[in-house]
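User: Sequence in, structure out. Go.
Assistant: Echoing your sequence, followed by the structure tokens.
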Amino acid sequence: MADFYQNGIVTTLHNLENRPIEALEKELVGFSKRRPMGLILPSLYSELEGKALLGTIEHIKKVPYLQQIVIGLDQADQSQFEHALAFFSGLPQNHRILWNDGPRLKALDEELQKLGLAPKEMGKGRNVWYCMGFILASNKVESVALHDCDILTYDRSLLARLIYPVANPQFNYEFCKGYYARVADGKINGRVSRLLVTPLLRALKNTLGQNDYLDFMDSFRYPLAGEFSFRRDVLNDLRIPSDWGLEIGVLSEMHRNYSRNRLCQADIAHTYDHKHQDLSLHNDQGGLSKMSIDITKALFRKLATQGTVFSNETFRTIKATYFRIALDFVETYHNDAIMNGLKLDIHSEEKAVELFAQNIMKAGSSFLDNPMETPFIPSWNRVVSAKPNVLACLKTAVEEDYAEYSRQ
């Protein structure tokens, strides 16, 4: 059972009563008459072969309030795309699959590349960006939820609680961030959020002084959650990173574009587990190591846009401050685990902290060495300005892929 405490400067919507899913969905069906609802599912083809997505789809089939589902499919050849069409065909809701590796969408991507307007690297950010474009192009829904496809503990109440704040016409929220306890198999998970993001935000406050952006980011209980929802108009002016900084980048954009009373976070699940990334101690181009560098650079870039001046000396101070705070957090989480009968390996936790401390310095060096680095994908407003028919082209490509291959 959650508490009702409002921490930080962002509204928190708790799960206080374990409300039956049927009651939530009945309300959402009513809301859908005024605010039609959609769902974005960014997926790798490999996730169609795992049990997590199969279970997720079985739950989504029972959701009565969705008018549209948009699936972004990465790393799939033609036969795999055809398999994906069959895999998702059981969904009773209107749905379309963006075959991102197919010839039609690749041709559109190449056109945007020539204009300097396409995502520069493959990954979740690119997938999500094109899905958002299709939502704008099809103009079917007003409120949209997004969640990952590797959730092992999925229940359709997660979706209901995630989309409710932006679907309820009596609420004025433009954006909702989901949060949950990362506890599964008798242990506390979520290392990057627990051992990097929160202590780094506290270290930045200590080093740079109080800052509205840092207070804002520190208000989110699980800033790296891949689940969020938004009103459709949010998509037009959203500039998101194409790397592992996606979640931090989305929150940064919300801070830039909206008043705090238009944003919230919601408790969406009692338990949550998904596939786990390797720590990658000896490879900073993979796993949690690369993730930590990308996330740290995203924070540095945002602070720089507000006038913060960084130097090697500043990064050394931030790293030292972070290291002490993070080690204190290890003890805190260890005590929390013991009291709840959970496991937490102090040695592996401190190894992660040591790696993240090193990567703060790597992120700082990269930031100073590449001042013109811009991993952000252009907003759809900018793309439409440069290529006015782009959304129509995107919609046509997706519909033609569906018409051609769903018959085979």
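User: And one key feature?
Assistant: The first strand starts at residue 11 and ends at 13.
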